[in-house]
């Protein structure tokens, strides 16, 4: 299974912001759309990711307030990315190794979507369920084994 398979099922709704978007506006958008990340775009290029991790760090530093800063000041400006052709097992390894929950999907320099740890887990569970159903159907249709025939001897 590849990242493109997950994007086909998930759809391609994207929520993007610019680095100069106010952090309060970004938090409101994330709450409104029930999403854990925003892709930060500038002049058509991916320049960063804003996730709840950066927001929580900001809240901690500011005594519980997001303050008046812009996304540029707190975003991850070197996010890990993948391509539509990346294998899902490789994505799992990348996410675990780098402790990231969201991966922008780029084809050349074009943003194709974002996949989350949840999306990957859901796809793996669904794939395993499909394989399980296929195996059970195969086993149900398994031909009965013939009893070995006795050969008559002298």
Walk me through the structure.
The structure is a single chain. This protein has a single domain (3-140), classed as CBS-domain. The protein contains 5 helices and 5 strands. The chain is elongated, with a radius of gyration of 24 Å. The chain has 154 residues and is an alpha+beta fold.
Can you identify the CATH class?
Alpha Beta
Q: How would you name the CATH homologous superfamily? A: CBS-domain
The secondary-structure class comes to alpha+beta
C-alpha-based Rg, rounded: 24 Å
As residue ranges, the low-confidence spans are none
Strand content: 15-25%
Shape: elongated
| CATH architecture designation | Roll
The sequence of SSEs as H and E is HEHEEHHEEH
- Number of helical segments? 5
- The N- and C-terminal alpha carbons lie at a distance of 59 Å
Major beta sheet, strand line-up: 1-2-3
Percentage of residues assigned to helices: 40-55%
Indicate the CATH topology.
Answer: CBS-domain
Could you give the count of β-strands? 5
Main beta sheet: strand number and arrangement? Answer: 3 strands, mixed
**Mean residue pLDDT:** 87
| Structural domains: how many | 1
């Amino acid at each position: 299974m590849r990242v493109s398979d997950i994007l086909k099922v998930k759809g391609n709704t994207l929520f993007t912001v610019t680095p100069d978007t106010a952090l309060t506006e970004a938090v409101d958008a994330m709450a409104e759309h029930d999403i854990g990340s925003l892709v930060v775009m500038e002049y058509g290029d991916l320049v960063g990711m804003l996730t709840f991790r950066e927001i929580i760090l900001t809240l901690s530093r500011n005594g519980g307030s997001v303050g008046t800063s812009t996304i540029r000041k707190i975003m991850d400006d070197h996010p890990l990315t993948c391509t539509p052709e990346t294998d899902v097992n490789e994505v799992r390894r990348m996410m675990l190794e780098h402790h990231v929950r969201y991966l922008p999907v780029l084809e050349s320099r074009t943003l194709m979507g974002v996949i989350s740890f949840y999306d990957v887990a859901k796809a793996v569970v669904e794939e395993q369920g499909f394989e399980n159903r296929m195996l059970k159907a195969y086993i149900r249709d398994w031909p009965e084994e013939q009893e070995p025939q006795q050969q008559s001897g002298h």
